[in-house]
């Protein structure tokens, strides 16, 4: 029997392209196109130190959602309980869940 991780995220790890703020200003349109189209990350530096990061908008929104979930103690508790259940093998197949939901729907 194949076991699946309860939650799987696949990221392609992109090393951020470090760009001084002056270069960022000069090449803004091109750099934004690289971020949007190629999914590159740009680390804008000021005086050699990171000042800002430019990432694709959907990644930013996903990070916001993740931060919201991680700041909710009840959500963290539910995730931990779910992972414990999975580690004990307390899972339901998709087919069984679908059949159960169909039966509930048909009853009422």
Structure description:
This protein folds into 2 domains: 14-56, YefM-like domain (YefM-like fold, 3-Layer(aba) Sandwich); 72-108, no CATH class. It is 56% helix and 14% strand. It is built from 5 helices and 3 strands. A 3-stranded mixed β-sheet has the order 1-2-3. The longest helix has 15 residues, at 73-87.
Quick synopsis:
The chain has 108 residues and is α+β, with helices and mostly antiparallel strands. It contains 5 helices and 3 strands. β2 and β3 form a beta hairpin.
Oligomer: single chain
CATH homologous superfamily name of the largest domain?
A: YefM-like domain
**Percent range for helical residues?**
55-70%
Strand order of the largest sheet: 1-2-3
Low-confidence stretches: none
The count of β-strands is 3
Predict the CATH topology of the largest domain: YefM-like fold
Order of helices and strands: EHHEEHHH
Main β sheet profile: 3 strands, mixed
Chain-averaged pLDDT: 88
Kindly provide the radius of gyration, computed on alpha-carbon positions and rounded to a whole number of angstroms. Answer: 22 Å
Strand content: 5-15%
End-to-end Cα distance: 34 Å
Q: What's the level 1 CATH class of the largest domain?
A: Alpha Beta
| Domain module tally | 2
List the helices and strands and how they pair.
Elements lengths: L16 E4 H6 L1 H11 L3 E5 L2 E6 L2 H14 L2 H15 L6 H14 L1
Parallel strand pairs: 1-2
Antiparallel strand pairs: 2-3
